[in-house]
Amino acid sequence: MSDEPAPPLAEAPLGPHAPSAPPEGARRQRLHPLTPLLESFRFLTAAVAAAGIQAFTSRNFLFAIYIALAAAVVGGIASLIALQYRGFVVWGRELHIYGGVFTRSHRTVPLDRLQSVDLARPIRARLFGLAQLNIEVAGGDGTDARLAYLKADRALALRSELLAIAGRPAAAQEAAAEAAASEEAAADRDAGLLVPQVTVKRLALASLLEALPVQITALLVFGTAFAVTGSIFGFSTVATTLWVGFFAPALLGYLQSTVAAVNRFLRNGRFRIARDGGNLLVQRGLTDTSHETVPVDRVTGVAFDEPVMWRSRRWRRVEVWTAAVAQQSATAVKSTTALPVGDPDQVAVVAAAAVPDLPSVFDVERPPARVRWRMPLRWKRTGAALTERAFVVRHGVWVNTHVAVPYARIQSVRVTQGRVQRMQGVATVRAMTAGGLGHDAVAAHRDAAEAVAMAAELRDRADAAAARERPRLS
Amino acid sequence: MSPKATPVWDLWPGDLAWQPMSPRLRTVWVLRSLVNVFLLAIVAAVGLVIWLGWDGLLWAFGGYVVLAGLRSWTVSRTVATWGYAEREEDLLVRHGLLTRRLSIVPYGRIQLIDLSAGPIERMFGLTTVQVRTAALGSTTEVPGLDPPVASALRDRLAVRAAEVREGL
């Protein structure tokens, strides 16, 4: 039932601008029957775990079996019913997505506004050969429509179909090529890559080195705290009361940082990035694979991260900031990893692909020495510079980051001067980019006169850069 | 004036024609701070009366007078720091007594222009212009303008924004 061929495209019945809805009888395409099972994956795991714990503690195995049986039966029936109401129809130039049993929902996605269609394959879906499509549309809130789950080949076909309807033939060809390529040998697919695929060994080492300082610090703090309190109160008392009440939650945090490091490693495994026309294509994931498309003309900034332990190896990570067209939504800005770890020359290649002519090594100027006492650790690694193409700021201790914002992407500029800063005659310059908070280039503690001059210069260069790339849509 | 006391906006390279706000803005803001302190004083008075008996009312009143005096002094000094300047390509807004702020909004990046007026502001015939760009948290306010000045500013901004549209 889920593999039936897609019905032929119907012409929009009332002309191109009329509000169209698929007729009652239009054949809805169903999602894969395993969908509810996969979507309630976490819930199921939790239920199984709860039943297991129950069985373990009360030795009442029969009870646990009853619970599991009841959950399975109720869940199965509910999901079968729910599946009947879920589906989608490609009708004219629109995609209609239906869902919900008690609260029916019907979402219409105008395909003219299609920004990107990303194919994601979480591990639980990959086990069954399934995939999900994330459909992003320009404008509006919660613009992320999701089709989950479909068979992988069908998802690819649907993706190229949607892109073709959206009038993005280049992207559609790319999607088709990708579909074809997925059957070919891996060696052939390396042809269009910007940088060679990141090796597992390097990625593992990089993840480990990045997590190490935090972990060592945490362990040292725990160790000294334990030793000090232990020598005062006696180790047995400490072990029972303090340990459970105070250190255990802290240890949980430590564990969480480990999990985050492992997650990052899994997410960035088999990382491949390619450039296709005006888009960066990112494909990554060891267990959960995902394909992402970053339109280069939407890049508002590039961040180069350098964790403290990578410094000796001269490795860096590249993140790309993009702003969706949606303005009022807090999730409008997102940063996409463009290179999880790379040598200086690889970083340079990726940077130049993300923003034309963007260098990857910057010569930033530090804040005046009189503010050094305010930032003893950071001072050496803080700075700002007005380069030819972009406004570059540098900050951070554990992870030292260079942020480069192309002049043409600067929205507004702000100069602030706090009361301590006023006594020192310094000020902070903030260049804001479209999208969320925290995605600004902040040059902290510049000399007051220099800060104001910098703001004026930023504005001039922003106008010049914007004029150069006019006419520009959006 | 020592060099360190020079407001950061006076260091701008080149000349700027700063427009002051309406003189009534000071009255409005002083009134508003008096009302705010009064609400605070009422809350404090209840507590003090319970604690000290009816003497508490006197204490609350005394506290109110002192606080309100201090507050209106700082507020009236703060109002003096507000100002805006229109340049060829952008709008500059300055304000702040302890923390100095200078916002620069290019016309080409303006997405929305709001006019608003609160109840006290309306009594004195004042309007606030708010300018938004696509960056979140970058709302720039120009408070305390006479309604004709505010709508003229809004119209100028809108026209310039339509002329030089620079997108995201």
UniProtKB/TrEMBL annotation, chain A:
Residues 87-161, 379-453 form the YdbS-like PH domain. PANTHER family: UPF0699 TRANSMEMBRANE PROTEIN YDBS, UPF0699 TRANSMEMBRANE PROTEIN YDBT. Residues 1-10 have a biased composition (Pro residues). It holds the Pfam family bPH_2. The keyword Transcription regulation does not apply. It comes from the Bacteria. This is PH domain-containing protein. Keywords: Membrane, Transmembrane, Transmembrane helix. Residues 1-28 are annotated as: Disordered. The chain crosses the membrane at residues 63-83, 211-236, 242-266.
UniProtKB/TrEMBL annotation, chain B:
The chain crosses the membrane at residues 29-51, 57-74. InterPro entries: YdbS-like_PH. It comes from the Bacteria. Keywords: Membrane, Transmembrane, Transmembrane helix. The keyword Transferase does not apply. Residues 80-157 form the YdbS-like PH domain. It holds the Pfam family bPH_2. The keyword Transmembrane helix applies. This is PH domain-containing protein. It comes from Glycomyces albidus.
